[in-house]
């Protein structure tokens, strides 16, 4: 595996993080903080237990105030704002934080945020006005202000997932990534370099088993217990 190459301009990120310039770093960030209270609890525990390094908060979601309460209790946890112009969860609808009549180009014919389907993304890209995007993003960032906390970064929800156009070999970027990561070649490289992977398949199995024991009043605790179990049972992918 080749060493990391320092960028020619400005201080190297590795140096800012206290690592040698040629160190290869993997930083795990939990996005969708604020989606619901059980997600919030699981994300905070994952960071406190060392599974992840940071989180990204969706200030548009109904559980964002609960997430901010948790972040105030744990000011050592770095978090960013997970900027979103789409909503993919019909059972957990969220809308723009800016007044709807001030960002009409971001809304579908029913007056809601677009779903992040190919058709929804295409319609949003065709309609969205840059000043409306800026207004909504500023509203989402400004929503953190009353908490007294300072975000460390900005990232995107279900929009900046790579170039949707076909790559040179005709595969779409996301499909290529997935097919490589589940390939025998990926498993060989993981074993060769001694990389430990928190594979999604054990997580699915644990989550499926946990859901069979869930009662409505205990879902948050069950999700946190699932995260603890996964942390204790981490194995290399394919192992």
Describe the structure.
The chain is of the alpha/beta class. The protein has three domains: 26-161, Glycoside hydrolase/deacetylase (TIM Barrel); 163-195, no CATH class; 196-239, no CATH class. It has nine helices and four strands, in the order αβαβαβααβαααα. It has a four-stranded parallel sheet with strand order 1-2-3-4. The longest helix is centred in the C-terminal third of the chain and has 14 residues, at 219-232. Residues 160-174, 214-231 and 233-239 have low confidence and may be disordered.
The backbone outline, from C-alpha atoms, is globular
| Extended strand count | 4
Q: What's the CATH C level of the largest domain?
A: Alpha Beta
Strand order of the largest sheet: 1-2-3-4
Which homologous superfamily in CATH is the superfamily of the largest domain?
Glycoside hydrolase/deacetylase
Output the helix-strand order.
HEHEHEHHEHHHH
Helix count, DSSP H or I runs of 4 or more residues: 9
Question: Helical proportion?
Answer: 25-40%
The N- and C-terminal alpha carbons lie at a distance of 21 Å
Mean pLDDT: 75
By secondary-structure content and strand pairing, the structural class works out as alpha/beta
The tally of structural domains comes to 3
Reported CATH architecture of the largest domain: Alpha-Beta Barrel
Largest beta sheet, briefly? 4 strands, parallel
Strand content: 5-15%
Oligomer: single chain
Radius of gyration: 20 Å
CATH topology of the largest domain: TIM Barrel
Low-confidence stretches: 160-174, 214-231, 233-239
